[in-house]
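Checklist before submission:
- one chain only
- standard amino acids only
- sequence pasted in full

Submission:
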Amino acid sequence: MTITLITGTSTGIGLQVAVQAAQAGHTVVATMRDLGKADALRSAASDAGVTVDIRQLDVTDAASIASCIEATVATHGAIDALINNAGSGHVGTIEQEGLDAVRDVMEVNFFGVVATTRAAMPHLRASKGRVLTVSSVGGIVGQPFNEAYCAAKFAVEGFMEAFAPVAATVGVRVSLVEPGAVSSDFVANVGVDVPAMVAAAGAYGPALASYIARTTAAFSPAAAQTPAGAAAAIVELLLAETPAVRIQTSDGARAFVGRKLADLDGSAVFSETIGWVS
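Returned file contents:
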């Protein structure tokens, strides 16, 4: 029996990973910051004919992390896999937002990953388990009006890439997962009032309006990968006997990341992303 703890399972990719991992035979501990948002996961699990153990975990709260991990081990006896999925989107540019906003993004998307991984590692060492961290193509390619978000995801990528060989020496496999656009209500998910934000953007207003129009279209169901599709790639990685250190969840994500990794002078990426804001 494999005990898999997943953060950020109230919606989207995390919810789908929880259900699909349970369908694959894992005992799933599905966590979220607000248990008041658990009904969607309960319904999806019921529809799929599986059971998941839903628990509260706020990745920005050390006591919450410790309590959840201790309770999971007390109930299930071990943790065999940790899937760091919790995170939050953010749109903004540094001249127009305070450093506190940037710190908040880093706290959720980077330090939350680090803190949860740190707390789980003694148990993962004992089980010779694995850590899967959901990053983003935004952890490889810097994107307009995503300075803070991309900084956090770049940090996640650097941390996990550096940690992977160290963890391997004690029997723990570390992997990064890089989805591209996943179909969602992009504007609602990043919590912005678009007209108000564009009106307040001053000299950046035209660029911001172009970025939001382009990105809303990219995240539409007609253009983007589904949460279930992204989750299937994550569960396949979870089940792999020898998991890769890094995967992308779609052909579009692989192409996007590939352009960056081959772009030694930055011109290819800049030429592409400036088109998003022009």
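Reviewer check: The longest strand covers residues 27-32.
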